[in-house]
Design brief:
Elements: E1 11-15, H1 20-31, E2 35-39, H2 43-52, E3 60-62, H3 73-84, E4 89-92, H4 107-135, E5 138-143, H5 156-176, E6 181-188, H6 195-198, H7 212-215, H8 220-232, E7 237-240, H9 246-253, H10 255-261
Parallel strand pairs: 1-2, 1-4, 2-3, 4-5, 5-6, 6-7
Helix pairs in contact: 1-8, 3-4, 4-5, 9-10
The protein binds NADP nicotinamide-adenine-dinucleotide phosphate.
NADP nicotinamide-adenine-dinucleotide phosphate binds at residues 16-22, 40-42, 45, 66-68, 93-97, 116, 143, 145, 188, 190-191, 193-195, 198, 214, 217, 268.
């Protein structure tokens, strides 16, 4: 790390830090000089990521928690604020996907997906936002998906949970721009991570399968660079992926075509 890094002196909190996009973001933020709090439910994975930061690992703080159970989140946030003084960036990257048809998905599974993707994310965000308002600065980042912009087969609960994030984070911005709070929402298409392996089937079990479409996606490292550029440019929405992002434009500009083809697209 050099003192010339664009994040020198900054603090960032990254969830989903033990894998995929979140992990790649940790390495970039540390490389750019930030002090980074890393969270997920996988303590071993977080230890591995910290160790992989090499000489920068002294600026990495492990703070594991389950997005599905945020009852102690205020205490965790207060502890980090006490230690670091402030949080400049909160990157909500952690999340889980789904592969099950609507009629075979029990309601408890919809609720579980919402607990992790929506309620877990907003619980941490609310607890951090209070401090950002006091410090009169901060950048909140949420992770949606292209299927957070439209419905997509086998992802009813996932799509709905991601769409809910847009409503929440746009409101956070409108209420708090006067406090100098910035908000960005990442909209990934296909990024080559383990997301489909951990996606839940109708029994709530991980599928363990890599989607064909996802395997051809961009690398998490490339995704992290696009995301950091978007954050630095204070983009409201950061699109990440390849040609599958075209579906977003088709849905907006030519909805009839979207509804004709979307169920024939290979899964992301
Ligand atoms: N990859 C894509 O193509 C793609 C496309 C659209 C959107 N996204 C979104 O991008 C984000 C990152 O996903 P990824 O692709 O990097 O997948 P990933 O490699 O599976 O990483 C997901 C991360 O979320 C964490 N997580 C999952 N459930 C959790 C829980 N209950 N509590 C705490 N942490 C939890 C995981 O940690 P644990 O080990 O603790 O579970 C892991 O660190 C997700 O929000 C996903 O929906 C990805």
């Amino acid at each position: 790390m050099s003192q010339n890094g664009i994040m020198y002196g900054k603090t960032a909190w990254i969830t989903g830090a033990s894998s995929g996009i979140g992990e790649a973001l940790v390495y970039q933020f540390v490389k750019e000089g930030a002090t980074v709090i890393i969270s997920s439910n996988d303590i071993q994975g977080l230890r591995r990521v910290k160790a992989a930061c090499g000489s920068g690992s002294s600026r990495v703080i492990i703070a594991p928690f389950d997005l599905a159970d945020t009852s102690d989140i205020t205490a965790l946030v207060d502890e980090q604020i006490k230690n670091l003084g402030k949080i400049d960036y909160l990157l909500n990257i952690g999340g889980i996907s789904q592969r099950s048809r609507v009629e075979e998905t029990p309601l408890w599974l919809d609720r579980k997906i919402f607990e992790i993707n929506y309620f877990g994310t907003i619980a941490l965000t609310k607890a951090v936002l209070i401090h950002m308002i006091k410090q009169r600065s901060g950048h909140l980042v949420a992770t949606s998906s292209i299927s957070g912009r439209f419905g997509f087969p086998l992802r009813s609960g996932y799509s709905a949970s991601k769409q809910a994030l847009h409503g929440f984070f746009e409101t956070v911005f409108l209420e708090n721009k006067k406090h100098n709070i910035r908000v960005s929402v990442i909209i990934p298409g296909r990024v080559r991570t383990n997301i489909s392996l951990h996606a839940l089937n109708a029994e709530g079990k991980e599928t363990g399968q890599m989607d064909e479409g996802l395997a051809g996606g961009i690398s998490p490292e490339k995704a992290a660079l696009i995301i950091i550029k978007g954050i630095m440019n204070n983009k409201k929405e950061i699109l990440v992926g390849g040609k599958e992002l075209l579906l977003l434009h088709i849905r907006r500009l030519c909805p009839w075509l979207f509804f004709r083809i979307a169920d024939k697209v290979k899964p992301t």
